[in-house]
Amino acid sequence: MNGVNEIKIRVAQDSDSIRWDEFLIRHDDSNFYQKFAWKKVIEENFRHKCFFLIAEQNEEVKGVFPLVFISSMLFGKMMCSMPFVNFGSIASESSEISDQLIAYARKLTEDNDADYLEIRSLTSVSDQLPTSLHKISMSLDLDPDPDTLWNNFKSKHRTNIRRVYKENIHVKQGRHELLDDFYELMAESWKFLGTPIYRKKLFRDILDNFPEDTRIFIAYQGDTPIATAFNGHFKQTIEGMWAGSLPSFKRLQPNYVLYWEMMKDGCETGFRHFHLGRSTTGSGAEDFKKKWNAYPRQLYWQYILNNLEEIPQLNVKNPKYEMAIKVWRKLPLSLTKVLGPLISPSIP
């Protein structure tokens, strides 16, 4: 029998956005990628349908679960929380509410004939679901005094940072005024990696929709932009979302100065944690981040399989995609900037 204290789950509407974000502020384990504004950003830039699930009890928000439905000619149909960013997942007041949100998401996956649901999470949402552990988030604890961080680095690491400063490297931070330089750096960096770039409009819309919570950093040698990062802010945590650098300036190692300037700024502006972006276990990116005394936090990719019998392998280490990556790297930059925005919405 239904009672007044029953948990009710539904797809949130735009009118729920304030209550949704207020719940995230109250909830200890929420994250930047669960914020409601991502719905507008994804729907307008990628044309994917979003199902942002909200759990309520007596009209009070008790849990949220942002989902995106992707129908891709390349990779089939999937539900994901959250694609295109580092993770997403559920924020709820209890495991029972999480289970109900997952059950609702399972039904949506079946109703939309999606091949599977992929939950990208900082914590395991269920020990009953198939799980991949190939991704980690390298995290760093900040300090109100940046000198405390500096003094804890190994001597060799401090020497490397000083060496890069001597190459006439300096860092600017800002927002829209740095967008053009940021995008050009990302387009060339991602071409080198074999990754299709998004439209510039995506990054502009993120800046517009998160006016207090986003920041661009760019390292310059003189007047030449050579490395960049795009960060999000949520409560006391900095989220490293995207980063790139010019392959032709790799020998200068500008990321030593870029990352130090971001960390120093984070300390001075009151942040306590810095997620240095998502990394593949055992990668060079993981090794670089360890130099800053960052520690790995396991990420959990968990699945509800609908039309598949085993976990999908949508990653760059899959031999199936190696040839496509090699071809992409050889294309002219001008062509990848045209083709990338056409392909990237299909790559979650």
Sequence stretches where pLDDT stays below 50 over 5 or more residues:
none
Q: Strand percentage, roughly?
A: 25-35%
What's the tally of helices? 11
Helix and strand content put the structural class at alpha+beta
Compute the number of strand runs. Answer: 15
What is the radius of gyration computed over CA atoms, rounded to a whole number of angstroms? 21 Å
Alpha carbon gap, first and last residue:
41 Å
Helical proportion, percent range:
25-40%
| Biggest sheet record | 8 strands, mixed
| Overall morphology | globular
Q: In sequence order, what are the helices and strands, one letter per element? A: EHHEEEEHEEEHHEHHEEEHEHEEHH
Average pLDDT, all residues: 94
What does this structure look like?
The protein has 348 residues and is α+β, with helices and mostly antiparallel strands. It is built from eleven helices and 15 strands. The strands form two sheets. Strands 1, 2, 3, 4, 5, 6, 7 and 15 form an eight-stranded mixed sheet that branches. A seven-stranded mixed sheet has the order 9-10-11-12-13-8-14. Helix 2 runs antiparallel to helix 7. The longest helix is centred in the N-terminal third of the chain and has 17 residues. The chain is globular. It starts with 7 loop residues before the first strand and ends in a 5-residue tail after the last helix. The model has no long low-confidence stretch (mean pLDDT 94).
Structure in a nutshell:
This protein is an alpha+beta fold. Helices cover about 35% and strands about 30% of the residues.
